[in-house]
Structure formats: structure tokens, C-alpha cells
Design brief:
The chain is α/β, with parallel strands linked by helices and 413 residues long. Helices cover 31% and strands 10% of the residues. The protein has helices at 22-27, 35-46, 67-78, 102-110, 136-155, 168-171, 174-190, 212-229, 236-244, 297-303, 335-349; strands at 2-6, 54-57, 91-95, 113-118, 160-166, 194-199, 232-234, 265-269, 274-275. The protein has a 9-stranded mixed beta sheet with strand order 7-6-5-4-3-2-1-8-9.
Length: 413
């Protein structure tokens, strides 16, 4: 599993597709930052069944707590009693990168911090993120600064990957997709070989969402780029390993039957309280259920939405927070894209059927979920991730994505 520490919900950005409310970013949740409370919660969790889990600093924007407090948290994580064989520290962060300066770079290097930068492509594609996406001049300045931050991290040898959100403005056309591919090659020259390409799921801005066919077009090409240029972009690598059975359990958490009230990601708020995945916060679920019982979502999906789907064992219907119509009980809105991608990968790998892992017996619980006090039981068992699958139409590639002239070959002029 992944433990995320959210020292603050404040953020200095106003990304147009953010799933959190703007008031939450500008005013916070009324949760005060308390280092001692965070340290106490982390140590208690570490002494339980999740010793050795990955730990990530998240937000909001985690660098907004300032250099001194940020370094204290990195030092806390770095000095945990890590299991033998685990790289000491294993600190990671997710950040918009806007506040990274020389002091932060020093901290990254000192505590073996792996940096995940949220950015949606080169400047002309990265227009839905930033301090104010409605201000083109401010967005241009932000993109200029971020480009140099990426170059600085690469120059200093800080392990860096990219968290890229896919939407109409950076991947909605073959032309934009070509630009995205060229940008990935520019990143490779810096030494940044990959990260994640996750579709935006925005009930507030549905017009930004790709169609399932558009998302498949992106993933199809990213898979080809991974193979041709030695890149490492997920979820394509993870989906391939899910099919071949190389993953002991389906990865990432979106394919791992993540329960919305006991998510595979455990969060520690700024005041030390324990919550679920940060994707649940916008629904007001800031407290983790003390029960380890399941909601029954996946038993219902197997009988209804995902009935007879061969990929259900390695998909599980997807992330609850990406359910159709914003309904966590339904399968993911990216069902068709996931199925098309798995069909394609299966043909590429020469597989006839998807692997069929052992089924777990259903576990139901009629007690309230998500609103009771935090207990001292185990908290989840996997890692934090991105997007999903189900039982959509045929698996052929969308017309125009291979030999019909619009596959993004950036070698062409």
C-alpha cells in the first residue's frame, strides 16, 4: 500500500479540472498542520502491518508548508526503521513544481526524495493547470519556470517522473498527441523516461474529458512509444504485466478492487487524523472506516455491470471515484478504453485469454462506513494509481490509428 501524508490542503494553483473544491485549496479544511501529530500517526502505522510501505508527501501542494517543515517530514520518513533490502528513505512527493528552488533541491538530494511533477505537456498543451489558467500570460510564465525546474532536477540528478493528466487540450487530436510524444522524447533527453498518463475524470468540467476511443488512441500510441524509444509510461506497463501475470496482484490500485471506504491508499492529514485516498475527500470522506470489511461493490459489479467480462479479475471495474455518472457503485467511465487496451495488448503478447486469479469470498458488512472513529486495525494493501476497464464493444483499434495517416509519427514533417 501507499501512505500519503497531506500536511496541507492549501494549493497555489487553480487547475480547471481539479476534483477538489476551490475553497478547499484557497482556505483549507480548517485542519491545522501539526508535525508531532503527523509523526505520531506515521509511527503508529509503521509499527502495525504496514511497516515498509511507500510514503508520499501530497496535498494540496505539499511544498507550501515551507522549507523547514518540509525537511522535517522528509527526515522523519527517511529515518523510519526500513526493512532490510528496502532503499533507505523511499520518500516520494507529488508537486506542481512551482515552488521548487535550490533549497528544495538540496532537501531532495539529502533525503533520497523521488519527485513526481504534475504537468500536462509542453507549454502550449499545459494550459489547464497553473496559478490561473484563465490568464494566458501568467500561464506562459508558469510554463517557462516549470521547464527550467525540470531541467534543474535532471541536472542535479534528482529522480523525477511525470504525472500527466490527459484531456481534450493536450491529447484530444492527432496533432496534439504528436506534440505530447515529442515532449516525452525531450524529457527522455533530460533523463526523465516516464511517469503516468491518467485520464481526467471531472464531473465539474466534463467537456475536458476524452472519449473512450480518444483515450485508447493515446494509450495505444504511448505503448508503441514505450517499446520504440525505451520509455516507461504507465498504466501501459502495469496493464501488460497484469495480463502476463507478472504482477502478483493487479496494479495500480485502480485495478485492485479499491474499496471506497477502506482504500488501498491511507492518508495522514495535517492534524494526524487518518483518512482514505485523497480522491475521496471531495465527497467529504476525511475519516477512514475502522472496519476492514468491504462495501460489496465488487460482488455487485461482477453480477451486473461487469458480468461475464474476461478482464474483471485484473480490473475489478475500476476506481470507485471514476464511476459512471459520479456514482462510486458503478464501473469506471473508462471501461471501453480499458477493454480496448487490454484487447490490443493481448494480441501484441499473443495471449488467447486473460489470467484468472483466485476469487476471494465475498465479505459484506452492514455497519456504517466512513464516518466512525479511526481504529487500530490494518489499512488497505496496495498502491495509489490511475484508470480502468469493463465490458464495452469490440476490441479493434479505432479507425485511423495505425495505417491511415493520423498516427502521431513526429518524425514526419
Amino acid at each position: 500500500m501507499t501512505i500519503i501524508i497531506c500536511p496541507t490542503e492549501l494549493c497555489n494553483f487553480k487547475c480547471s479540472y481539479c476534483f477538489q473544491e476551490e475553497d478547499q485549496h484557497t482556505q483549507g479544511l480548517g485542519i491545522k498542520y501539526d508535525y508531532d501529530a503527523i509523526a505520531n500517526s506515521l509511527n503508529n502505522i509503521w509499527n502495525g502491518p504496514h511497516h515498509g510501505s511507500d510514503v508520499c508527501l501530497h496535498g494540496g501542494e505539499c511544498t507550501m508548508i515551507g522549507h523547514d517543515e518540509f525537511e522535517k517530514l522528509c527526515k522523519l520518513i527517511y529515518n523510519l526503521p526500513w526493512r532490510e533490502g528496502k532503499v533507505k528513505g523511499s520518500v516520494s512527493i507529488v508537486t506542481n513544481g512551482s515552488l521548487i528552488d535550490d533549497r528544495y533541491v538540496e532537501i531532495f538530494k539529502k533525503y533520497n526524495v523521488h519527485v513526481g511533477i504534475s504537468v500536462d505537456g509542453p507549454g502550449d498543451l499545459n494550459i489547464q493547470r497553473g496559478p490561473d489558467p484563465s490568464d494566458s500570460q501568467e500561464t506562459e510564465i508558469y510554463n517557462y519556470k516549470l521547464k527550467h525546474v525540470l531541467m534543474k532536477l535532471a541536472e542535479e540528478g534528482v529522480p523525477t517522473n511525470i504525472m500527466c493528466i490527459l484531456h481534450k487540450d493536450n491529447a484530444g487530436t492527432p496533432e496534439k498527441l504528436r506534440k505530447l510524444g515529442k515532449w516525452m522524447l525531450w524529457l527522455k533527453k533530460l533523463g526523465i523516461k516516464g511517469g503516468r498518463v491518467n485520464p481526467v475524470s471531472s464531473d465539474n468540467r466534463p467537456e475536458l474529458e476524452l472519449t473512450n476511443r480518444e483515450l485508447f488512441r493515446v494509450w495505444y500510441n504511448v505503448y508503441k512509444w514505450n517499446k520504440k524509444y525505451g520509455l516507461s509510461w504507465n498504466p501501459l506497463i502495469e496493464m501488460e504485466k497484469n495480463l502476463t501475470g507478472e504482477n502478483r496482484q493487479p496494479r495500480p490500485c485502480i485495478f485492485h478492487k479499491c474499496d471506497p471506504f477502506n482504500t488501498h491508499t491511507l492518508s495522514i492529514h495535517g492534524n494526524g487524523s487518518i483518512g482514505c485516498c485523497d480522491r475521496t475527500f471531495y465527497r467529504g470522506l476525511y475519516t477512514r472506516s475502522a472496519s476492514n470489511s468491504k462495501s460489496g461493490r465488487y460482488q455487485a459489479l461482477e453480477m451486473i455491470d461487469c458480468k461475464d467480462c474476461e478482464y474483471f479479475p485484473i480490473c475489478g471495474g475500476g476506481c470507485p471515484e471514476e464511476g459512471y455518472g459520479g456514482d462510486w457503485r458503478r464501473k469506471t467511465r473508462w471501461c471501453e478504453a480499458n477493454k480496448l487496451t487490454y484487447d490490443f495488448l493481448k494480441r501484441e503478447l499473443g495471449l488467447k485469454t486473460a489470467p484468472q486469479p483466485k476469487k476471494e469470498p465475498p465479505r459484506f458488512d452492514d455497519r456504517p462506513h466512513g464516518d466512525n472513529a479511526h481504529g487500530d486495525t490494518g489499512h488497505g494493501d496496495s498502491s495509489h494509481g490511475d484508470s480502468t476497464h469493463g465490458d464495452a464493444p469490440h476490441g479493434d483499434m479505432p479507425h485511423g490509428d495505425s495505417s491511415h495517416g493520423d498516427m502521431p509519427h513526429w518524425e514526419r514533417k
